[in-house]
Write a structure and sequence with these properties.
Helix content is 68%, strand content 4%. The chain has helices spanning 2-13, 20-40, 42-53, 81-107, 116-137, and strands at 55-57, 72-74. α3 packs antiparallel against α4. It is rod-shaped, with a radius of gyration of 26 Å. 15% of the residues are buried.
């Protein structure tokens, strides 16, 4: 029984079963989704950073009931570096998943055709779109 399981693992590793394409595609799209989430996380991070820069502190009334002084605006020195790090990490993740998917498809070519190039183009277009949206909002 154990020998049968080892044989199945070996078959999946080297020119495995016919459903190996669907496993590769599932992993590919999960990696793409994770990279897109990382890229798009830069938008709320940048919004939060911008809101930290617009802080006003209302001063308490002085004793005796006099008029309240005007609010004090605090200027914070924030940088969008964290947002850019998320964009870079997501972009690297997506391009790495595209690279791995392409190599895995070349490794297990079979007689029937799979839309591997279409999936690669979809991955590149989605990555570049998310990158553009994120960079425009930063």
């Amino acid at each position: 029984m154990g020998d049968y399981n080892n044989h199945n693992k070996l078959m999946e590793k080297y020119r495995g079963p016919s459903n190996q394409h669907s496993e590769m595609e599932k992993k590919y799209f999960i990696r793409l989704f994770f990279g897109i989430v990382l890229i798009l996380l830069a938008i709320p991070l940048e919004t939060y950073r911008a809101e930290l820069g617009d802080v006003e502190i209302r001063q308490p009334r002085p004793a005796g009931g006099e008029d309240r002084p005007p609010p004090v605006k605090i200027e914070t020195n924030t940088s969008p570096a964290l947002s850019y790090m998320f964009v870079i990490a997501g972009t690297i993740t997506n391009f790495h998943s595209i690279y791995r998917y392409r190599n895995e498809c070349n490794e297990i070519k079979e007689n029937y055709s799979r839309p591997a190039n279409i999936f690669l183009i979809i991955g590149i277009v989605i990555t570049l779109s998310a990158l553009g949206i994120s960079l425009i909002s930063i």
